[in-house]
Amino acid sequence: MSRTRAGARALAIMTGTVSALALGATATAQDALDPPPSVNLFGTPGLIDMPSAEMKPDGEVTFTYSYFGGQQRRSLTFQILPRITGTLRYSTIEEWREGVDLYDRSFDVAFQLVREEGPWIPSVTIGLRDFLGTGVYSGEYIVASKRVVPSVTVTGGIGWGRLGTLGGFSNPICDIFGNGACDRDVDIGEGGDFAWESYFQGETVAPFGGIEWRTPVDGLTVKAEYSPDAYEREQRSPDSPFERKSRLNFGAEYRVTRGITLGGYWMYGSEAGVNLAITANPNRPLQPQDLAPGPLPVTARAADAPRGPAWAANEAAREQLGQALAAALDAEGVRLQEMRVSPRTVEVLIVNRRIAQDPRAIGRTVRVLQTGLPASVETFRVTVVRNGLPVTTVEIDRSTYESLIQRPDAGQRMWEQARIVSADPRVPEQFAVWQRPDLFPAFEWAIFPALYLTYLTPEDPIRFGLNIDGRASYRLTPQLSFTAGVSQPALGRTDDPGPADTELQPVRSESARYFAGSSPNLTRLTGDYVTKVRPDTYVRASAGYLERMFAGVSGEVLWKPSEQSWGLGLELNYVAQRDNDGLGFGQYDYRVATGHASLYWDTGFEGFELQVDAGRYLAGDWGSTLRVTRRFPNGWALGAFATLTDVPAEDFGEGSFDKGVTLEIPFRWATPFETLARNELTIRSINRDGGARLDVENRLYPVVRDLDRPALRRNWGAFWQ
């Protein structure tokens, strides 16, 4: 059996968020002419149980829940690129063995080799189902789909593995390469590793296919398919609720909105089935993105405006100017933290408090400067501060800015003329400094509900819970802060499940114990100091209760010039494992030094970002993690990661090695007002001890990532908005 445990607000938040957002979506005229591909009961583009060669729109995320014959499938599908689809699936199969249910996770991937074109060329896709799971659904396929008339799509293909178990013929790969390719040994056990010896192998392959008709009734589609899947394993138990009597499946689906589709089916001559598909797309916001208040109108300086520099030496004038600029920027959702003044140049240090796109916050700041600064100022410098760190400075020539105010190509020309550099923490001698007096020290607190989900546990496959979390922070200076977090179980609390069955120190496999019980939990109590020692070098030091399971000290150095697309980081930690029922450290008596060297690279290709971490993990194992993330200009991010260490697969346990997917959804995508809030979640195939890393909240790279030159370039079109 497979099991894992998610942290707070994991899959439940994603499901609830995507569901709520999809309910607000409506079909467009383009959808009526060219409806997006439907999905099958495995959550991938397809017919009913069989795949098709179609692809979803680029970036689309689809969550599906399906059920028939005692089988539940919950799938999360990402359109990674226009021709690449990936799927993470969690399934429940009742009576897998007599009296025993199976809880299984699996991964799929599909590559579209040919895109449909003209009257004769179909789409052609090659796919691997359950290529990185236990092998329960293991099968590969090559499939073609063609829209023969606007409302009818025909699909046909051949399948290996489970898709080649009935009505098949000799595997041509076996005939070509000999008996070695005839063997298909799928080990349904711990899973989680690549089965190179099985892909496209086996004695037989079998054809499959079907037809899809989008009826004249708006949103209604009917389907029929031929399936060669024997479902032999699902029928072994004498108490199995499923009996396969036919190779034909029939169904009808109704698209309620652009984001929700419901389906009903008659499966294999014996069972009724249902499917719910919910979709969301980063490139298709649910709310118009231009409903926020418009920007401040600006005009060029008058030709006869006085341009004397005397004001810059007048402390009272600087104070009055700083207060006026601070009030104007507050109205825009931007906080003025500091102003540096010389007769010809003014630099402002700002904190973006609510504007989703940083170039828009910078652009609105420049509008305020253009309106409010004396005519003698020729250069604007806007430095964006995040988490107390001055990250990036955008320098703009005022005369150039004025010449572009009414130009239709102002965005591109401004990008070409702006100078983007790493912010210098030192103040040049020629500048007089005005600091806003009411910002520090600052105390903030919040109390909020926190939904969490425990899933993939054999004893209790899915359990929702609700905690009431409290958080308080005291920022003494921009660099020095103290933070505390408390979590009170409210609904769905569990009892302590006891020690985990693990060959390693239980650094993560016992995480369920830290969420159990009814007493409040101290989730964080830290002092944090961040600073810049050079324009391109950041430093962080943290100490205290760093996370729910570990306490200690953590230090980090990041080298990341704003002008370039890559950076280097080094993190070192020394921590002790906390008791799961108190504040002490006696229960585990475990201490460990961990650390990683990291490479960060924005590839510049379709928003893809790579991160490689190498070093020592919490269980004392050594290895590295590869993380690939696709970031969209509006803040969406879809990613996947995998960690390989010196822990053997048999010691790691179920899953063989640590891996999972990440998803970030900005609230601005679904709301008509500006906000920086977002949902972030990580879904692991299983929570084990190998490859486990300390969960430090304020790592440096996420702080600076969205303010380098490549990131600003992606969103620069918002500068004038």
Task: Write a concise synopsis of the structure shown.
The chain has three domains: 25-280, Porin (Beta Barrel), CATH 2.40.160; 310-331 and 333-439, GMP Synthetase, Chain A, domain 3; 453-475 and 479-711, no CATH class. 12% of the residues lie in helices and 42% in strands.
Explain what you see.
With 721 residues, the protein is mainly β. The chain has 3 domains: 25-280, Porin; 310-331 and 333-439, GMP Synthetase, Chain A, domain 3 (2-Layer Sandwich), CATH 3.30.300; 453-475 and 479-711, no CATH class. It has 10 helices and 32 strands. The chain has a 13-stranded antiparallel beta sheet, covered by helices on one side. A 12-stranded antiparallel β-barrel has the order 1-2-3-4-5-6-7-9-10-11-12-13. Strands 18-17-16-15-14-19 form a 6-stranded mixed beta sheet. It is globular. It starts with 10 loop residues before the first helix and ends in a 7-residue tail after the last helix. The model is unreliable at 1-30 and 455-459 (pLDDT under 50).
